[in-house]
Write a structure and sequence with these properties.
Structural class: mainly alpha
Radius of gyration: 16 Å
Helix content: 55-70%
Largest sheet: none
Distance between the termini: 27 Å
Strand content: under 5%
Shape: globular
């Protein structure tokens, strides 16, 4: 995900907020659905609109934007599985 954000950082000023958050320590977070969060980021960065426009120009036999979203989500899942979650570690950070 970091690589994707770094690549797309030239298209938005919102990355400055993400870089500022590198010095922050997360003490607690309300669990949200992974897909919901990724979908919000996806739309917020304008990727849905960009890829849908490209898809309409190319006339693919499949929804290009959804296919790329699924590939990005699969990459996230692979990465997320390599980090232990707070729930599985039994730690309480509150």
């Amino acid at each position: 995900m970091d690589k994707l954000i770094a690549t797309l950082s030239g298209f938005t000023e919102k990355v400055m907020v993400l870089k500022a958050s590198e010095d922050m320590l997360l003490r607690w977070a309300k669990p949200y659905g992974d897909v919901y969060v990724l979908e919000s980021l996806w739309k917020g960065l304008g990727l849905e609109a960009i890829l849908s426009r490209i898809d309409s120009e190319k006339r693919n036999e499949f929804p290009l934007e959804r296919a790329i979203f699924c590939m990005v989500y699969q990459g996230y899942l692979t990465l997320a599985q390599s980090y232990p979650s707070q729930r599985s570690s039994g730690r309480n950070t509150s």
